[in-house]
Amino acid sequence: MMVRVLYFAWLRARIGTGEEEVAPPPEVADVATLADWLAARSPGHAAAFADRTLLRAAVNQDFAAFDHPVRAGDEVAFFPPVTGG
Amino acid sequence: MIRVQAEDFDPGAVLAEFTAGNGRVGGICVFVGLVRDFHDGDPVTAMTLDHYPGMTERQLAAIEAEARTRWPLVDVLVIHRVGRLEAGARIVLVATAAAHRAAAFESCQFLMDWLKTRAPFWKLEHRPDGENWVAAAAEDDDRAARWDPHP
Fold this sequence. Notes:
The complex is a heterodimer. Chain A is an alpha+beta fold. Chain A has one domain: Ubiquitin-like (UB roll). Chain A is built from three helices and five strands; from the N terminus they run E-H-E-H-H-E-E-E. Chain A has helices at residues 10-15, 31-39, 43-48; strands spanning 3-7, 19-22, 56-59, 62-64, 75-79. In chain A, strand 3 (56-59) and strand 4 form a beta hairpin. Chain A is globular, with a radius of gyration of 12 Å. By secondary structure, chain B is α+β, with helices and mostly antiparallel strands. Chain B has one domain (2-145): Molybdopterin biosynthesis MoaE subunit (Aldehyde Oxidoreductase, domain 3). In chain B, strand 3 (38-39) and strand 4 form a beta hairpin. In chain B, helix 2 packs antiparallel against helix 3 (101-118). Chain B contains four helices and ten strands; from the N terminus they run E-H-E-E-E-E-H-E-E-E-H-E-E-H. Chain A binds chain B through residues 6, 8-10, 58, 61-63, 77, 79-85, and chain B through 33, 49-52, 54-55, 58-59, 80, 91-92, 112, 115-124, 133-137.
C-alpha cells in the first residue's frame, strides 16, 4: 500500500523532508506501527521518532491516536504538540 | 470565516467590514495576538509560523462550528498569519459578533483557547543566539480543558 507521510516543525528538520510517499509492508496497520517502520528508514527518522511522548499524529487531516488504523491512500502527519495563536 | 495568510491585516478595517450592514450585531469582542520580543527572559527577534495547509483550515472551521453550537453568534472571524513575523507583528485575530456581550466575550476566549491547542500551527523562535521550536505550554492545555465537557 502507498501512504503519504507529512512532517512538521522539528520533525521535518530532523528528517530532512516535509513529505514522502512510502510503501510500508502489510504488518503496518496503524499509526504506531507506521511510526516504528518509518523510524528505521534513516538516522534522521530514528531521531525524530525516538520519543513518542513528544509526538502527535493526524490521519487524513484529523488528529488521530497512535492506535488509529492506517490504510492505503491515507495521508498521515507527524508533528509536535501545536503552538499557534 | 477563516483566513490563513502570510500578509498582515488592519484590525480596524477588518472589524469595520466584519459586521457592516448587519443590524443584529450588538457587540464585537476581538482578540489580537502579537509576537513578543522575549520568551522566558530571553530576547526574541522574530518567529516563523509553520502550519499544515488543509488541516489548519479544517480544524479552524471545526472550532468555529463548535463555538456556534455553544453561543448564539451572528458571525465569527479568525485570521491567522503564517511565515516569518518580526517582533511586534500581528499573528492572530479572533472576532466574535453577537446580539449581546456575554456570548461575544465568552466565545472569543473559547476560540483562542481551542485554537492554541487544536489548530496545527508551530512557532519557531529566532533569537540572537539561534533558533528554537517553541514547546507547548501546559497552561494552554489547562485553559482549553476548562471548556470541557460541553456545557
